[in-house]
Amino acid sequence: MVDLSGVGSHLEDHAIAFIGPFLLDDPISYMPERDMKMEDAEEYVSNGTGLFATNGVGSLGFISSTVVKDKEWSDIQLFQFNGGLDPGTPYVLNTLYGLKEGLWEDWLGPYMGRDANFAAMNVARPKSSGTIRLASRDPEDKPIIDPGYFNHPDDLQVQVDGIKFLVNFYENTRAWGKHGARLAPTPFPGCESIPFKSDAYWECIARSVTTTLSHPAGTCKMGRPEDSMAVVDTSLR
Q1: What confidence score (pLDDT) does residue 100 get?
Q2: Residues 68-87: pLDDT tens digits?
Q3: Which has the least CB within 10 A, 13, 26, 162, 211?
């Protein structure tokens, strides 16, 4: 057995922030109760195409934040979700975020049944890092995981830049303007005291509605023998 201080350190992950709903005047989002038909299932079984062939992400892209110096190397990944506000939306969000019971139902209640989009962005090149540690000598005990999101201030700025881009994209482009796209005007619970759409408000959103993109890595660092944080060498020994 070797006592290596680097074990469990340098945990990195893609933190993904959620923004929306962007309300739409036209029936162009996917509403299962309205849009799902038996023919869709038959098409998927026969051809692997159609509504059942999508994972819900309508599009994605990459942009650069105000933080990144090399604009050719993007540090923000963007997602658009084409599902509207159907009865199952709060359940999905509860599963993803595990926030206070009833929060999503209460906040989205006035807009349920509306055509809409949600969007999200993640810090593609995080500077923050966390740790994973043993809780005790008992192997049955769950480990103590601290993702360390936003312990580097640049990552929070990247989140804010991404959110502002998405809001502008929906509210101020010709493509979405013809559908009346606009962010729902109800502040997110817990952020009501902050001026709506200010940078401080977007910071509150980032801290409140951010979760893992399930890409954790880095807690078993490869490095040179003299690197005290290295766990394995370049031959994985």
Answers
A1: 83
A2: 888 888 999 999 998 899 88
A3: 26
pTM of the model: 0.88
Q: How far apart are CA 193 and CA 145, in angstroms?
A: 31
Bridge partners of residue 30, in order along the sequence = 83
> What's the one-letter identity of residue 21?
P
Token pair, residue 130, equals 């966390």
Q: What is the mean pLDDT of residues 113-138?
A: 94
With residues binned 3-state (H G I as helix, E B as strand, rest as coil), the percentages for the chain, rounded to 5, are 30, 20, 50
Cis peptide before 21 (omega within 30 of 0): yes
Residues ≥6 apart with Cβ < 8 Å to 1: none
> What pLDDT, on a 0 to 100 scale, did the predictor assign at position 55?
78
Domain residue extents for the chain: 16-30+58-126+154-212
3-state secondary structure labels for all residues of 121-185: EEECCCCCCEEEECCCCCCCCCCEEECCCCCCHHHHHHHHHHHHHHHHHHHCCHHHHCCCCEECC
CA distance linking residue 122 with residue 3, whole number of Å: 35
CATH topology for the 16-30+58-126+154-212 domain:
Cholesterol Oxidase; domain 2 (3.30.410)
> CB count, 10 Å around CB of 86?
20
Helix (H, G, I), strand (E, B) or coil at 224: coil
From the list 84, 79, 78, the residue with the least C-alpha distance to 117 is 84
Closest CA to 133 of 147, 154, 149: 147
How far the first Cα of the chain sits from its last, in Å, is 13
The token duo for 92 is 């999905």
Q: What is the pLDDT of residue 64?
A: 94
